[in-house]
Amino acid sequence: MPDLFPGFRAEDVEVGGVRIHARVGGAGDPVLLLHGYPQTHAIWHKVGPELARNFSVVAADLRGYGDSAKPPSAPDHGPYSKRAMALDQVRLMERLGFASFHLVGHDRGGRVGHRLALDHPRRVRTVAVLDIAPTLHMYERTTMEFARAYWHWFFLIQPEPVPERLIGADPEFFLLRHVARGKAGLSPFAPEALAEYVRCFRDPAAVHATCEDYRAAATIDLEHDRADAGARVEAPLLALWGERGVVHRCFDPLAAWRERASRVAGRPLPCGHYLPEEQPEPLAEALLAHLGG
């Protein structure tokens, strides 16, 4: 299979007893790229090399995803809280020699990025969140339209082993149907990237871990968010989203982020949910402007 990140090196780093896999390339100020569900760091294969012309780029697999470790969970789902997942990435960047960094997160990676910016403000120079509104905001404002479109939020949080057993019957079918649900279908995705998503998602441990990510989002993450109700992200925050996506249709992302961050800019891009693969060139341009590259 062709290398999706030519010139990047692979890193497998132990951080607090959890192995995190990443691809690292480029030179300059560091940028951490975090993916979403049900994908891996491969989602950045069109954007990462462009950013690497100006920056040191780290595209990492979240715990539970890709080739990162899938540690056991707990009754409170704490091991898959965004707090735990964010700490992994802080430790990863520190081990790679980066005490502070720019942060870009799509989907679940954006939620990890939001928590990281709150818990570790001195680590984050800037943050960009792609096609999300804050988790608590979205749950508290759930409508019938949103629930129908994001039904997987409510399916994946069902008690073990219900979603695990059902997805496990045909994980490739589930993954492909999930990523193809937008108007563009599978057309934005490179076959090599899709093959990576499928390879990783076939692992029953990944199916379970990613369900735990969503269970944590509906429980312990909401507890953390409510406890930090008055906290604000102080790093400059860029919010970008797809104008043909559910977030655009059901929420006001700029207004939502301005309730939780002090310096917010952003706009929609002409695409659906998967900005890094549907609109890589405009996304890279927007990120470079935000990062100062």
Main attributes?
single chain; 293 residues; alpha/beta; 15 helices; 8 strands
Q: Any overview of this molecule?
A:
The protein has a single domain (9-291), classed as Alpha/Beta hydrolase fold, catalytic domain (Rossmann fold). The two termini are 31 Å apart. The chain has helices at residues 48-51, 82-95, 108-119, 135-140, 144-149, 151-155, 162-168, 171-179, 191-201, 204-217, 220-227, 246-250, 253-258, 275-278, 280-291, and strands spanning 9-15, 18-26, 30-34, 56-60, 101-106, 124-130, 237-242, 264-269. The chain is 42% helix and 17% strand. Helix 7 runs antiparallel to helix 10 and helix 8 (171-179) crosses helix 9 (191-201). With 293 residues, it is of the alpha/beta class. It contains 15 helices and 8 strands.
Give a summary of the structure in a few sentences.
This protein has 293 residues and is α/β, with parallel strands linked by helices. Helix content is 42%, strand content 17%. It has one domain (9-291): Alpha/Beta hydrolase fold, catalytic domain (Rossmann fold), CATH 3.40.50.1820.
